[in-house]
Structures are given as structure tokens and as C-alpha cells.
């Protein structure tokens, strides 16, 4: 009896150990959702199929319709400030990257005392991948993706480059991890990133959750697209708008390839996919982005520069298949993703955890945000509190309501006329101005309420001043063209000069 008992007890103990280790596997690893975070570069409000039927984005449209379209997802007006906010969870003006974008030869980067979201995802067991554009500094290795939380990196450091030969200002900017990749001359970058993402997905260790950050080069200028996509847009007679539209469709196909890989390797059912632009479309003739019916463009504090297209998709979402009108800001991704990973962001952070808003459609915890504060000329700042938006100083150009061009030459007419007429009838900014809009009632910013509602102006100004106390002066060291010269590094833009 005694022996039998002991034996059954040890059997039981053994069974418990087995069970415990099984549940450990279930809890510790693969059940956390995979996160695929796609950023389109310079994609305007009117540059995606679900907002504009002249653009073919069947894959993105389907994902958006099945998921949750984010109708009030705010971003910063340009690349570096937006990416700094996304990566750090802080407003760009608290990071020191609020003024314009980093130049090739600028010895600066996203300050090293910020712990970036991929670092935090890694701490929570994620294997982290980045493919595409960095644009947060590279003058020393410590600033670059593989030193800042990405286990794998395939992409480029600067703002923009040729889509086929991957050069910018004459020299190559393309890396696989730390190594320069000379082998992709002639391959359109959108295909290149889709192919590399497929490779990463195929070799991903499935007992760890995946965090894939995929900031495409698309659809930033230089505007270039493969012929087969250009052929889909013969009905658009403005050459640059045709190319831009073709670039968007090429990116849509790349997303399709990435999703097919996630399905094939059985990650898709547990993937949260985020899609967002980094800023509004550059609504100028050379770039041909478009934000209609929103006012303004990339580079501006108007809604056209800052109200970003975006959506989330995932089978785990409790409420989906609708348009969500709750307010969110690019800084919110950090605490939200960290929450999904099982962590919690510092309370000082500007970003808020909006998971219940995305997942269940609950009211957003976000009631206000700073569009940007730029203390360097052209100085300008904007804040949103509830339904109201206050702009002080320079909101930026291009201004006005710019329709998508359809025939060559029409830009040259639309752009100056639009600004000119607007200035004459007083709708447009004269540079140093105070604007107050009710964005809910007037999302296209046509009705300046500043004179009618001085108390509201005072209230928002006071809040702006209060938040401005935390401003870190913009980090803008003098460019170092000698130090950064790629000829010193075998002909590729490289770290090692600051
Ligand atoms: C999205 O936002 C715009 C601008 O505020 C609004 O006109 C539109 O009705 C919203 N879409 C939906 C489906 O709620
Ligand atoms: C990083 O350093 C800057 C400048 O000293 C400071 O303003 C900021 O609060 C620091 N950020 C963090 C997250 O420690
Ligand atoms: C890369 O392509 C651009 C066209 O966008 C061209 O001007 C440049 O000379 C090419 N550079 C190299 C090194 O291939
Ligand atoms: C790419 O190939 C073209 C044509 O073969 C060549 O002229 C150019 O220098 C190459 N560019 C790079 C960056 O390798
Ligand atoms: C996959 O990840 C698990 C958990 O981190 C680890 O134990 C295992 O060794 C990894 N397998 C391979 C092939 O790297
Ligand atoms: C605009 O405002 C800024 C900051 O208040 C001031 O320094 C500048 O002189 C003003 N410019 C004009 C043209 O009024």
C-alpha cells in the first residue's frame, strides 16, 4: 500500500510537472499576438482606395473594411518628428526632433536615453524585425536600428533614395543588418522589402512572438513605379499623379505578399496588423500626394499634414468592421503595443494606452494632443483639446484645399490660384496667425473661430503654454559633409563620424 501510494503520488507529481510546463509554454511564448506594423511614407488622406475610388488598393481596402478604420489617428507633419514620436512614445518636441528632418550629413539622432518600443517588445519575449526606412540618425552605430532593439534590420538610414539603385546623393544606402548590400541594384524597393519580409516570416522561430516594423520606402519621392502599375492608371493624365498612384498600388501588392507569407507560415490568425501613414501627402506637383478634402499638406500643421490614414486588423479584435472616430495620436502606439506584449509604459510618457479603443471601440482616453511645437523659424504650434484645434504662428505651406490633379499642367494652376484666392477672401493664413477650428463640425478647417471665441482661444493657448514647458530645444548640429562623406566608407552612407 505504502509503495503503491508513493508511486501514484510520484506519478501525480510527474503529471503536474508536465502540465505545468505545458501551460508555461502556452503562456510564455506564442500566444502573445504577433504585431506587424506597416508605415507608408507620405501617403495622403486621398491616396488610398477606401478614401478615393481612383486609387487601386484592394488588399488594404479589404483589411481596413474587415478591421477598424481609424478616422482620427493623428501623426506629425513630417518623417523624422513622426518616427521619433512613434519609436519613443514622446512628442517630438520633448525628444528634440520637432524641427524638420535629419539631413544626410547631420551628426545627430534620436537621443540615446530614450528606450525605444522594439527594445521593450524584446524584453517581453518578441523577436524584432525592421524593414525599410529609419531616418532617426546614423552617424554612430549606437543610433542605428540593430543597436536600438531590432534583432534584424534590412533597409536604409536616410530620408529617401532611388527605388531601383538605392542611392541617395550619389551613394548607396542599403543594409542587411550592419552589412552594406550592393546586390539589389535594379530591384524596386517595394518588392525587395516584401521578399525580405517573407524570408523573415519563413525563418521566424514560432515559439516567440514576432514584432515586425515595416516602414516602406513607398510612397515617398523620388516618384518611380514599375510599368505594370503605371499601365493601370492611363486614365490619370497628370504624369506625376499617375506615377504616385501606381506606387500606392505596388505597395498594396507588397502587403498582399507579406500577408500570404503570414498565412502560409501560420502566423496570420494571431497577428495584429497596424497600417498607418507617417504624415500627410506632399501636395505639390513633383510629389503629387493628395489630402482632399482636408486642408494643407505634408509639412504643415493643417489636418492635411497631420490627420493620418490608418487602420488595424486582427482576428483577435473584439469589435471590427467599422469606422472608429475616436481620437488617437502616433505616440499612443508605444504604450498600446507594450500593453499587448504584457508591459506598461512610464507614466510620464505622452502616449496613452488605447487598446480598449482599438479592441472594443471604447471611448478613447485621449482628450487632447499637441500637433507639434516648432520653436525654430518658421515657428508654429498647434494643439487639440476636445473638438477644438488652435494654431498659433505658422501653419505652413502648401495651404488650401487641393484637389487631385487629373491632367498635366493643372497643378501649376491649382496651387497658386488656390492659395491666392484663399488669401484674398481671408480663408488662408498670412503666416503669423491665430486659428481656432471646431474640427468635429468643420474637419476641413474653413471657418476660423478665433475672433468669435476669444475665451476658447485663451483656454487652448494656456494649455499649449503649459505643455510647452517640457520642450527640449531642437537638436540641430551643423552638418558635417566631410565626416559623413560616403567615399570614406567604401561608397555607402555609413555610421562612424560622430
Ligand atoms: C470620418 O471623419 C470625417 C471627418 O470628420 C467625417 O466627415 C466622416 O463622417 C467620418 N467617417 C465616418 C464613417 O464616421
Ligand atoms: C533624455 O534627455 C533629455 C535631454 O537631457 C531629457 O529632456 C529627457 O527627459 C530624457 N528622456 C528620458 C526618457 O530620460
Ligand atoms: C540612381 O538612379 C538615379 C535616378 O533616380 C540616377 O540619377 C543615379 O545616377 C543613379 N545612381 C547610381 C549610382 O546608380
Ligand atoms: C547600378 O547599375 C547601373 C547599370 O548597370 C550602374 O550604372 C550603376 O552604377 C549601378 N549602381 C549602383 C549603386 O551599384
Ligand atoms: C526558439 O525560441 C525558443 C524560446 O526562446 C528557444 O528556446 C529555442 O531555442 C529557439 N529555437 C531555435 C531553433 O532558435
Ligand atoms: C511671427 O511671430 C514670431 C513669434 O511670435 C515673431 O518672432 C516674428 O517676428 C513674427 N513674424 C512676423 C512677420 O510678424
UniProtKB/TrEMBL annotation:
Residues 33-342 form the Sulfatase N-terminal domain. Coiled coil: none annotated. Its cofactor is Ca(2+). Gene3D superfamilies: 3.30.1120.10, Alkaline Phosphatase, subunit A. Residues 1-27 form the signal peptide. Keywords: Calcium, Glycoprotein, Metal-binding, Signal. The keyword Signal applies. Residues 472-498 are annotated as: Disordered. It comes from the Eukaryota. InterPro entries: Alkaline_phosphatase_core_sf, ARSB, Sulfatase_N. The keyword Glycoprotein applies. Belongs to the sulfatase family. This is Arylsulfatase I-like. The lineage of its organism: Eukaryota, Metazoa, Hemichordata, Enteropneusta, Harrimaniidae.
Amino acid at each position: 500500500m505504502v509503495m503503491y501510494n508513493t508511486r501514484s503520488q510520484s506519478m501525480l507529481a510527474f503529471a503536474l510537472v508536465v502540465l505545468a510546463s505545458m501551460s508555461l509554454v502556452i503562456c510564455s511564448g506564442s500566444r502573445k499576438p504577433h504585431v506587424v506594423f506597416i508605415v507608408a511614407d507620405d501617403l495622403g488622406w486621398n491616396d488610398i482606395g477606401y478614401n478615393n475610388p481612383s486609387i487601386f488598393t484592394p488588399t488594404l481596402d479589404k483589411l481596413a473594411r474587415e478591421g477598424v478604420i481609424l478616422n482620427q489617428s493623428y501623426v506629425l507633419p513630417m518623417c523624422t518628428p513622426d518616427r521619433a514620436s512613434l519609436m519613443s512614445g514622446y512628442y517630438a518636441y520633448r525628444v528634440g526632433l520637432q524641427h524638420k528632418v535629419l539631413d544626410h550629413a547631420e551628426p545627430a539622432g534620436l537621443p540615446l536615453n530614450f528606450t525605444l518600443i522594439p527594445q521593450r517588445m524584446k524584453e517581453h519575449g518578441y523577436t524584432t524585425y525592421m524593414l525599410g526606412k529609419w531616418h532617426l540618425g546614423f552617424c554612430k552605430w549606437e543610433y542605428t536600428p540593430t543597436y536600438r532593439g531590432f534583432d534584424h534590420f534590412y533597409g536604409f538610414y536616410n530620408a529617401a533614395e532611388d527605388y531601383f539603385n538605392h542611392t541617395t546623393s550619389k551613394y548607396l544606402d542599403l543594409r542587411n543588418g550592419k552589412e552594406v548590400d550592393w546586390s539589389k541594384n535594379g530591384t524596386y524597393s517595394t518588392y525587395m522589402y516584401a521578399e525580405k519580409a517573407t524570408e523573415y516570416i519563413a525563418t521566424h522561430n514560432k515559439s516567440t512572438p514576432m514584432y515586425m516594423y515595416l516602414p516602406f520606402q513607398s510612397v515617398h519621392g523620388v516618384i518611380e513605379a514599375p510599368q505594370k502599375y503605371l499601365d493601370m492608371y492611363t486614365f490619370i493624365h497628370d504624369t506625376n499623379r499617375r506615377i504616385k498612384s501606381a506606387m500606392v498600388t505596388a505597395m498594396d501588392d507588397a502587403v498582399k505578399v507579406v500577408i500570404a507569407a503570414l498565412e502560409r507560415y501560420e502566423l496570420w490568425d494571431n497577428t495584429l496588423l497596424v497600417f498607418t501613414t507617417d504624415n500627410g501627402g506632399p501636395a505639390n506637383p513633383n510629389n503629387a500626394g493628395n489630402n482632399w478634402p482636408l486642408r494643407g499638406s505634408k509639412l504643415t500643421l493643417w489636418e492635411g499634414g497631420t490627420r493620418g490614414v490608418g487602420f488595424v486588423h486582427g482576428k483577435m479584435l473584439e469589435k471590427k468592421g467599422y469606422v472608429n472616430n475616436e481620437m488617437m495620436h502616433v505616440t499612443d502606439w508605444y504604450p498600446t503595443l507594450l500593453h499587448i506584449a504584457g508591459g506598461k509604459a512610464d507614466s510620464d510618457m505622452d502616449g496613452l494606452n488605447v487598446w480598449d479603443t482599438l479592441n472594443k471601440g471604447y471611448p478613447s482616453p485621449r482628450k487632447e494632443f499637441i500637433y507639434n511645437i516648432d520653436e525654430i523659424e518658421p515657428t508654429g504650434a498647434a494643439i487639440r483639446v476636445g473638438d477644438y484645434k488652435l494654431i498659433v504662428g505658422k501653419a505652413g505651406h502648401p495651404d488650401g484645399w487641393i484637389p487631385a490633379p487629373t491632367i498635366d499642367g493643372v497643378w501649376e494652376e491649382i496651387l497658386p490660384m488656390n492659395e491666392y484666392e484663399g488669401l484674398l477672401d481671408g480663408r488662408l493664413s498670412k503666416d503669423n496667425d491665430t486659428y481656432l477650428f471646431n474640427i468635429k463640425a468643420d474637419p476641413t478647417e474653413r471657418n476660423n473661430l478665433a475672433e468669435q471665441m476669444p475665451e476658447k482661444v485663451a483656454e487652448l493657448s494656456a494649455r499649449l503654454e503649459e505643455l510647452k514647458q517640457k520642450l527640449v530645444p531642437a537638436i540641430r548640429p551643423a552638418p558635417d559633409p566631410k565626416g559623413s562623406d560616403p567615399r570614406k566608407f567604401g561608397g555607402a552612407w555609413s555610421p562612424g563620424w560622430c
